[in-house]
Amino acid sequence: MTAATSVRFAHRHLLGVEGLSPDEITLLLDLSESYIKQSRAADKKATLLRGRTIINLFFESSTRTRTSFELAGKRLGGDVINMSAEVSSVKKGETLIDTAMTLNAMHPDVLVVRHPDSGAVKLLSEKVNCAVINAGDGTHEHPTQALLDALAIRRRRGSLQGLTVAICGDIMHSRVARSNIHLLTAMGARVRVVAPPTLLPACIDRMGVEVFTDMRAGLRDCDIVMMLRLQTERMQGSFVPSIREYFRFYGLDYAKLEVAKPDALIMHPGPMNRGVEIDSEVADDIDRSLIREQVEMGVAVRMACLDILTRNLQSNEAAT
Amino acid sequence: MSAERISTAKPGRVAYLNARLLDPGSGLDAPGGLLVEDGAIVDVGAGLFRDGRPGDAEIVDCGGMCLAPGLVDMRVQLRDPGEEHKETMESASLAAAAGGITRMVCLPNTKPVIDDVALVEFIARRARETGLVHIHPYAAVTKGLGGKEMTEIGLLAAAGAVGFTDGTQAVADSRVMRRALSYARAFDRVIVQHPEEPGLAAGGAMNEGEIATRLGLQGISSVAEAMMVERDLRLVEITGGHYHVAHLSTAAAIDVVRAAKARGLAVSCDTAPPYFALNELAVGDYRTFAKLSPPLRSETDRRAVVAGLKDGTIDAIASDHSPHDQDSKRLPFAQAAFGMIGLETLLCVSLELFHNGHLSLLEVLRKLTRRPAEILSLPGGRLKRGEPADIIVFDPDRAWRIKEARFLSKSKNSPFDGRPAQGRVLRTVVGGRTIFTLGA
Known about the structure:
A: 9 strands, B: Urease, subunit C, domain 1, 5-stranded parallel beta sheet
């Protein structure tokens, strides 16, 4: 383990990036590095979480995040169970808190929760004895995504300090954007948000970012271009007139990318809407696109999060 | 805190001695006494009983504490009929009595909706049976609160509806609002508006701004309030209707009302304690007890509410009592119900305006008693011969802590839980009968 041993991760849950110190973020990223190696080895299995039960509780559909958490848990030797809202009693009218109490009675060690409502994961965390990881709550936070993005950037650029990162697209409905803003600003990067005015939440500048509505101005001389998915499922009413118009002004293509630094890297949290927010050629550009690396980093980051939270469980168990 | 029902026998003569009389009706603030007979005030004055105790009356020595008219709460949700698990007429009455409220006006958003003469009569009968505080209903402006068809305003008024409102939703259709304002004028009834432009506010959970953005919650723009008030005032101008805006919460809307009053329009308005005692920070980490409609606003807006109360733009303070059970509040923020209970904290939180030096004690009381009674043409709200003996004795300085577990209301959803308070009701009297005394 390369983590600075003097830093302690003093949280029972991982509910968001907001509130994490730069040292804690660095600790998680350093720990993640060690798990990249493990994931690339032929024998991927460790025994760290032997005997531990991890429940992936997804109230919102997800393939990549759920799979990533599942792999992370299994590679650390834990028992992983997947529950999705489609097959659970939530559809039969059980409340979130009832579900939490029911699962709590089964003594899981970690609950990984995704929910369509902001704050729902925190509410659930107040009712259980285990550690809770927020795998995305509404339009609030998605901390492991921001951590994996940071890890991918750090491996290419060495550090986050001083980089200019442009986060582009549907900022309003994006928990990825919020978590990334918290993380990147905490680590000393300069963050810009680029979006049509209708997709910018009120007072977003108060989160310490520069705001652009012209994509070319927003991308000028930036080091990293982070594209967001246009979240059509969260949109009530019309925020943009058409997909065609959106791509014309806010879709990432080579023409817009040319104002960024020549070696600017391209990121996307997935799943991508090709031809809506990102041109296919750009997305698949091996030299510049970090998109596949982000997925790989995801597993490592989630292993690190499971590791660190169960360490805290151990120390609590030892104390009682 | 405990409510007790003293004998149901017809009350005789009761003399309240050694009180600091506070009468928002006449502006009196002086030591004195008050005499009650057969449920009405028969004498009151600064010098009363100076020369000795009346021999033929029961004596209540107020010990120098304040004696004032009982509070008139012009905005209460009763949940009875239909949602008696949240509140009943009985539990709300006990809570009101403990809060010093002797007369309250309930919103028509019950199940069924109060949009029919039979329902108005039902409320009157239930209130009579409960027999604690006076309860008057508003009736709906539109049938079923549907926003389209006008209710039988004349018949409902004749049956006892003191005003008309669609409760927690705005009368959004301009043509419907115009006709309601115009028609209700013939029956001398006020239209009470929930000021929120529904299109702009749709889907919002808290005040729009930095905090909503950080929490990932959809915001409600403060402009939605001013827009609705501005539209309505245009309609008041062409109809000459009697218009009252409920629970103002924004600087912009208060400015609009201030300007309208300066132009001489017949407009009145109220606010509720959370809008001058709290701001959007109370939402904190998704605290659903602080999810209100209108939402808690910015600090700038909160200060504007205080300023509006000070300069008289805001006429009255109402509790905006909105009881909700755990199932309606222990939910993710966006799904939780709007509203807070307020009957038992109305006086003590309003007294903060006095303790903080914004208003005199009489000015605070006037907004809680005489002014709402005037707006709705109700009796009470003053210490005057011939008025019903609806009075309270209170200690404006008594320190205590608001505790959820002590609430008499069936629901416990108060953002003021744990708040230190100053000022407490010692005795509540309705129609000459003591219905609440503060336990030791």
